[in-house]
Design goal:
single chain, 212 residues, alpha/beta, Rossmann fold, nine-stranded mixed β-sheet, 9 strands
């Protein structure tokens, strides 16, 4: 997928991946990270996810990276916040009350610009990327977060029955991408109600990644 694909999706309102409520896997399993109140979480390719509303309401600070400036604009508007906007290397930094979103290509975000994060919450980033990009992404994410622990949500389905995104990422791929640096635990797997996009059966899983 190229940048134009995602820009078109947001401009045309084709954002079926956007959930109206916080993800229940997050709300159930975030305590597994053992984070103190006020911890800073990084959400890659965050869109305008309602998970950000939930995290902030529960005392966490949030940093995110999002390609679409329209998504960033809508996120702050829905939160009722007016961000301060400033350049951050090749990206634009949008900040307000414990929330920092970097607008632009996540692969141009570096550790110094991102700043310290205590954990990563990846709900829709890894599965949004084609196979050829996922190895690069996993390595980049580890580098810019200093190997912080992660919660990663994946889908597993017969890829021949449906084009991504979201793409199918099974257990063997999660282990290939992360097991050299993290201890992995599958905390929950569940059937996707009605199938993925109503087209094929799928399993949604939450993985806990703790640094070795």
């Amino acid at each position: 997928m190229d940048a134009d694909f995602w820009h078109r999706r947001w401009q045309q309102g084709e954002i079926g991946f956007h959930q109206a409520e916080p993800n229940s896997l997050l709300t159930r399993h975030l305590p597994a990270l053992g984070l103190p109140q006020g911890a800073r979480l990084f959400l890659p390719l965050c869109g305008k996810t309602r998970d950000i509303h939930w995290l902030r309401a529960n005392g966490f600070r949030v940093a995110g990276a999002e390609l679409s400036p329209l998504a960033v604009e809508q996120l702050f508007a829905e939160l009722g916040l007016v961000p301060r906007i400033s350049p951050a290397g090749a990206l634009q930094r949008h900040e307000a009350e414990g929330l920092t979103i970097f607008a632009g290509d996540i692969f141009t975000l570096d550790r110094e610009v991102l700043g310290r994060v205590d954990a990563v919450y990846d709900r829709a980033a890894l599965v949004a990327l084609p196979a050829a990009t996922r190895t690069r992404y996993a390595a980049h994410l580890r580098a810019i977060t200093g190997g912080a622990p992660q919660i990663v949500i994946t889908f597993d389905y017969d890829q021949s029955r449906m084009d991504g995104p979201p793409f199918s990422v099974d257990e063997s791929e999660i282990r290939r991408l992360y097991e050299d640096a993290y201890r992995l635990a599958n905390l929950e797997s569940r059937d996707v109600e009605g199938g993925l996009k109503g087209l094929c059966p799928a399993r949604e899983s939450l993985w806990l990644l703790q640094p070795r």
